[in-house]
Design goal:
single chain; alpha+beta; Chitinase A, domain 3; five-stranded antiparallel β-sheet; 3 helices; 5 strands; globular; signal; Peptidylprolyl isomerase
Length: 128
């Protein structure tokens, strides 16, 4: 029950940033490296070759999708977010997005107690 309340708060926070939330089915299946118990980062799509990567302090615009296999699918969300790299409220994302390029997609798996992982798919839309 506590997990569900916390998960709802996370999804609500994401949705309030730009007031956009919708159901999401992952386009890329989870692989074995992602289903392990630790923190994981997987590149799903490489960014634009030759473009610069994100560094701490950059203003970035991303499309963020969140989900967890241990939670019903109606409690997942997608939101466009604008923030300064290094200052995202989901702290582990700050390190995981460094060096990402425009149009790159990474999936970050963050362990969440005994409930498994929460996954965030980050698609970089712009870097300033």
């Amino acid at each position: 029950m506590l997990f569900m309340k916390i998960w709802l708060l996370i999804v609500a926070a994401i949705s309030l940033i730009n007031r956009k939330v919708c159901a999401y089915e992952p386009e890329f299946e989870l692989d074995e490296s992602e289903t392990s118990s630790g923190f994981s980062v997987r590149i799903l799509k490489f960014g634009i070759a030759g473009s610069r990567g994100i560094t701490k302090g950059d203003q970035v615009k991303i499309l963020l999708r969140s989900f967890s296999p241990s939670v019903e699918s109606h409690i997942v969300g997608t939101a466009q977010q604008d923030f300064v790299a290094g200052k995202h409220p989901v702290t582990p994302l700050n390190q995981a997005i460094l060096n990402m390029r425009v149009d790159e997609i990474r999936r970050i798996g963050i362990p969440f107690g005994n409930y498994g992982k929460i996954y965030y798919e980050v698609h970089v839309l712009s870097i300033e």
